C2H2-type domain-containing protein (Danio rerio), 352 residues
Amino acid sequence: MAFIKVESEDVEIEETFTVKQEDPQEQTDLIEVNKGSKEEEHHVKFEEKTYLQTDGNLKRRDKNRFICTQCGKSFGRKDNLKIHMKIHTGEKPFTCTQCGKSFNQSSNLNDHMMIHTGEKPFTCTQCGKSFRKSSSLTLHMMIHTGEKPFTCTQCGKSYSQSSHLNQHMMIHTGEKPFTCTQCGKSFNRSSGLYQHMRIHTGEKPFTCTQCGKSFNRSSNLYKHMRNHTGEKPFSCVQCGKSFNFSSTLYQHMTIHTGEKPFTCTQCGKSFTCSSRLHQHMRIHTGEKPFTCTQCGKCFNFSSNLNRHIRIHSGEKPFTCTQCGKSFSQSSHLNQHIMSHTGEKPFMSNHLV
């Protein structure tokens, strides 16, 4: 048994091959393999020389670098290059024994294990909140320091994280990279798409513990809970009246200001809220979205449908306090009341 030792002149890598003397062909094959390995290492060194020649600012200690042939990234140690190559090969040799998730670096596995152990070794000295990663603590500290190093060049707004700035920039660029496969609607955040998908799936994961009603957003559940608690956090500064929703307060304020910001483009009539304008537009469009299930007749307002339904049900909810006679519509009751009062508001002048 003989040993052939080949040492690369360009990169300090030593490889030893064992060759059987009784098989000349196998010996020749192994020598060829070694030659190919040497040529590959020489190729790495050639890229290294080109890299060094094009950058005169490199320090002397950066002469021996290992370059990835896939993406060109360079490393000072061969071990670091080996770790990096797992990105291209997809190799993930470090597996979590708890959940089976795999990682390409042992350090990433160690970080992941803290999810199972609950370990959070990095603690904020200001408020005591703990984190699994030092980088998370660093970001958190900006809340206390007020530091916002990432600034939008368009409007000057600043953020503590680069990812938040990137999301903000989509407002200026109009970019919406997250698209719904069901209806094609796009969003600038993945969270927006995730919430939107509940419209298609019908998922309502947030349930009221009081009445069992479910919602697709936690914010909607939070608002709904005010119906049970009676909380009315939004107060009118003019009259002190309180409301459980900010939108209701906004509508109320138009009573004091007289503001009617929603104007019909067809006839110029103005309204205090958009819903009133939306209802009004049906007069011009002829839209009648409310249909009677009994006879199929359609109406442009839900109130008109409700009045019509009483024809089929025979319901007469409006009762005269004088004689007890009931009517299906409040207008009919008002006309009836005049028979008791003797009021005749529609009498012609020449009959007076």
Notes: The two ends are 137 Å apart (CA to CA). The chain is about 45% helix and 15% strand. The mean pLDDT is 77.
